[in-house]
Here is the input.
Amino acid sequence: MTLRTALVLLLAIALTILESVIPHVLHLRAARPDLLLIVVLYLALRDDVMHGAALSAAAGYLSDLTSATPAFLYTFLAVLTFVVVRTAGAALRTEGGIQSAAVAFGASLGHSLLATLIFGFFTGAGLHFEVAPMVGVRHRHRRAVRLRRASSRGRELPAWRRSAGRPPMMLVRRDADDIREIRPRAALGALIVVCTMLVLVVRLYQLQILRGDVYVVQSIANFRKSLFVPADRGVIKDSKGRTLVDNRPSFDVFLTPAFCKGKERDEVIEKLQDYLHLGQDDVERIKSDYQKSWFSKDKLERFKPYLVMLDIPRDQVDVLEAHKTEMSCVNLIPTPHRSYHAPTSFGHVLGYMSEVTPEEMDDHPEYRRGQTIGRRGLERRWEKELRGADGKQNIAVDAKGRELDKDTQEALIPENERLVPATPGNNLVLSVDEKLQRAADLAFPGRAGAVVAMEAKTGFILAMVSRPSFDSNKMSGRISRAELKAISEDPLKPMLNRVMNENYHPGSTFKTIISFAGLESNAITPGSTVFCGGGYTMGNHRWRCDKPEGHGSLDLKHALSRSCDVYYYTVGDRVGLDAIAEMARRFGYGQPTGLDLGREIPGIVPDSTTITPESGSARAHAINAGIGQGEINVTPLQQAVAYAAVANGGDIVLPQIVRRIEAPDGKVIREFQPQVLRKLGLKESSLTAVRGALRAVVNEPGGTAYRSRLQDIEFAGKTGTAQVMKLGQKQKLDPTTQAYFSRDHAWFAAFAPADDPEIVVVVLNEHGGWGAEAAAPAAAKIVSAYFKMKREETAPPPVPALPPPPPLATSSMVQ
Here is the structure.
């Protein structure tokens, strides 16, 4: 026991002596000193609830055993006193010492007085009845008290008591009639008192225990305004450390409803409308948000500021600062806003920011009103890593929300609660190279389409273009309704990520998969030939070849390099639809690739179980699938994964775009490694034959992409032209003579170098026409840019030129 505790207990004893005097002064002679109860209650203020309640009940029961009172009266009152003391102690924030002793003494005195009143009511003696020293009183049972005279021997009263003429009886005798008359009244009184005390205890428990924290927070909120301190969102960098996304300083306007009521609210909104040049829609939104805050089930919602205007310009900041005293419920909060430095074509990868919705706040309690969160792309997928944790600034205010002076601030708010600093989010380092991204965007010629550049052996994305795209800066800022409407009604669908959320007929690029299906099933060999006479007939239907006069007899290499349709009609017919579907799924078609960038559509790979009789026979579907038409649909990302497997020897790799996650100080938190999802298990002879044919497509005369070859790099690839409408009797149509949405899609899938592939490039020019003209040249430019940047990075630094030697000094001789 510490010296402090001992001193407090001595003080409690002194107060107990005072308590024993007070009843004599007030003629309440039934009130007794409760030293034990005081000590117990003092300890109850410091110990846990269960121990304190048990000790109080024990003290009350001891009083019952030594008192002529109804059974368990002191026990009940002791527990009730304990509840009151716990409540008072919590309200006063007692931590022991003088405060606790004072509360315990007051509770004990109140306990004794209340017991006296109740006992007097039971006995009908009012406040004037006598209780002799605690001798001779014994309980027989719960309703009988044995009364006996005090012995004259050994228990004689002092002289001052005898002179007073008081009888030596412990309790004034009453006859049987009086006792019978008292009992019904005592029972009724006890019932009333017990019911009243139960109601009081239940209400105290509800207010102080169940909802105590709520009322404490509300009381604090009356003088304390809490303003959040937004955290800096994590930076996004490319593979070389260039900043793609960071934060810029800005100001947001917030309003706290609790400090802006009635007429004052209307005046403040009118001023905001004038100062911020708000439209009527904005005003209605502000009023609606105000009503939601004020009438929310959560009474604390009105003390939480909500967003009025996002990212206001500097001149409006100056205006609000000048009129700050007129609008105490309005706050300008410095908020970091996203700044996107990457090209617009990267918008679908990065995403953008927008305000959290009420539904999202219900699902995520950590969100607050007015907070912006990631939408689409990396901003959404890595929201938890990038967001960080907001801090809080607590300010002491008056009833109107006006900030108090510094001294008052220090008195009302502890120093460690005035400012809770924010924690910045983590950084993302991508596998994308910003320079290659810009080169791909520049090389792509179409109005709409997609480009994917990926490491062939690891699956890491090097560049990803989806056109048209959106401006992430615009979408994250104050975009108007008219601008949003223009984006949503654009027929080219700028918000659609064509790399992974749209599928197309693959056209002749799918002939590579058909080649593997034929070779692996032994339907063809690399040297077996098929005669092309310009068409393929089944029953009364004839499928035309790209070359009306036919290609003649072709083996696999020449058929693939010249893209002969008849050859692949034949292979598709021989292999069958189910075998084609099985090989396509092995290469990753018909299923999401697994790129962790949001929603991804699976594409369509038909088989005998999915087609309907109305759409044609399984044999007809197989013939159409032989040239990548019919019901088969793929995404550009699936094409990149499939051609990467051809390039790397048969490994289906997981496409990834995040290399690592770093802490704000640069420490690596998590690093992502390449992942091989499965191995195709293809025969080496099949891989060699197909890769040789793809090399011939670009590098041998007659190949469909021969005009796109590069002088210094030998790469391989396959062109494709996918029809979007039935041609009928018409053959190849000039794309320039057709309506845009009636033109064919142009494809080109390539890998380089052909011997030891490092990079895979897939280009889709939506409604671009022929793949050889509208897609292959763009892919060649991207491949060339990749190797050029690689040479620049690995080249030794230039040796600085030596300064020229000083001129030789000449001397003249005087003759």
In short: The mean pLDDT is 79.
